[in-house]
Write a structure and sequence with these properties.
Helices cover 34% and strands 25% of the residues. The chain folds into two domains: 216 residues, Rossmann fold (3-Layer(aba) Sandwich), CATH 3.40.50; 76 residues, Alpha-Beta Plaits (2-Layer Sandwich). It has a six-stranded mixed β-sheet with strand order 5-6-7-3-8-9, sandwiched between helices. About 7% of the residues have low confidence. The chain is globular. Helix 3 runs parallel beside helix 5, helix 4 packs across helix 5 and helix 9 crosses helix 10. It has 333 residues and is of the alpha/beta class. The longest helix has 17 residues. It contains eleven helices and 13 strands.
Length: 333
């Protein structure tokens, strides 16, 4: 079983400074979560018929349309829902039989925002740390550390009911990490946040997953969020896994190249077009070519950039986006 990640003594700092978490070296493990032919039904309504995936260490995004069973899967991973068939393991344990012990090693942030309105954030986080088995004094210290980490140190005595949606999302994240889990499960962690708040939350999740070695499984209906912070992805549809693996491995080339420029977009595009290669401008990017060899495209782009003395930031073979992959696997588009 994985050792807990430690939160040290409380430090009144902002999240940009060491919050007291002790970074951990990754532990060797073939998979944090393994599912093989998992089936699950609610009454006569099937949710999963063949859920099969190995989720490695790191940050993994779980994608699926509304009603595809993402929250049901989280419940099975926590040992709260029984599966009908197949095998499922979390950190080497079957959650159906090791639920209470396993939940001490897992942090969970639900999608809903129904938190106790009259309870102070620190009291709420401390209580759930105690539920996970920590002594009261240690739970108090760790709850303070966790709230400082998520940027609510100075707000920790406020009743949760007086907090904004963004602050409540941070409270939910704090309670998920306060007991020092090895794995955290986040259900729509940016739901209800504005763009700036989403950026801050994603940066925080990435920090937790990379700097402190805590494995993260998160669901989001915003694919660009998953593409931005996740290492791996699992896509579910029609009761089964339709794609799973490292995002870089799943995003196969589409043909052509992507050129990222700081300036001279239209001039460079015009020169490329005059050289007989298709080109399309999308913001600061140029999508160049189709079936031409990447070397030939590169030569034309090089000459166009040099001619107009443009600032070239990146050139590379075009890859399909995570949204392209999702639409293809789920909707056949």
């Amino acid at each position: 079983m994985c050792d807990r990640h430690q939160i040290g003594e409380s430090e009144h700092v902002n999240i940009a400074v060491d919050p007291g978490l002790t970074p951990q070296a990754p532990l060797p493990s073939p998979a944090v979560i393994s599912a093989a032919a998992v089936s699950k039904s609610w009454g006569t309504t099937p949710v999963f018929t063949d859920l099969t995936a190995n989720i490695p260490k790191g940050i993994t995004g779980l994608l699926g349309s509304n009603g595809s069973g993402k929250t049901t899967l989280f419940g099975m991973l926590l040992g709260l829902h029984d599966r009908n068939g197949g095998s499922l393991s979390v950190m080497g344990e079957d959650p159906a039989t090791a639920g209470p012990e396993l939940r001490q090693l897992i942090g969970y942030s639900p999608e809903h925002h129904d938190l106790p309105v009259d309870v102070a954030a620190q009291d709420f986080v401390r209580h759930l740390a105690e539920v996970h088995g920590l002594p009261k004094h240690e739970a108090t210290t760790r709850s303070s550390d966790a709230l400082w980490l998520v940027g609510l140190g100075e707000e920790r005595a406020r009743p949760i009911g007086t907090m904004s949606t963004g602050q409540r999302q941070r409270v939910k994240l704090a309670q998920a990490i306060a007991h020092g889990p090895s794995l955290i499960i986040l259900d729509e962690p940016t739901d209800g946040l504005d763009p700036v708040q989403r950026d801050d939350m994603l940066e925080l999740i990435r920090k937790i997953g990379t700097d402190y070695g805590i494995d993260v499984l998160l669901s989001s209906h915003l694919l660009e969020e998953v593409e931005r912070i996740a290492d791996n992805v699992v896509i579910i549809a029609d009761g089964k896994t339709v794609a799973a693996g490292r995002i870089d491995d799943l995003q196969i080339g589409q043909g052509g190249a992507v050129v990222v420029l700081d300036d001279q977009h239209e001039a460079v595009a015009r020169s490329i077009h005059e050289a007989g290669i298709a080109v399309r401008i999308d913001g600061g990017r140029l999508f160049v070519g189709n079936d031409e060899p990447i070397e030939a495209i590169g030569a034309v782009v090089r000459d166009a950039v040099a001619t107009h003395e443009a600032s070239l930031r990146r050139f590379g073979a075009r890859q399909q986006s995570l949204e392209d992959l999702f639409l293809h696997e789920v909707h056949g588009e």
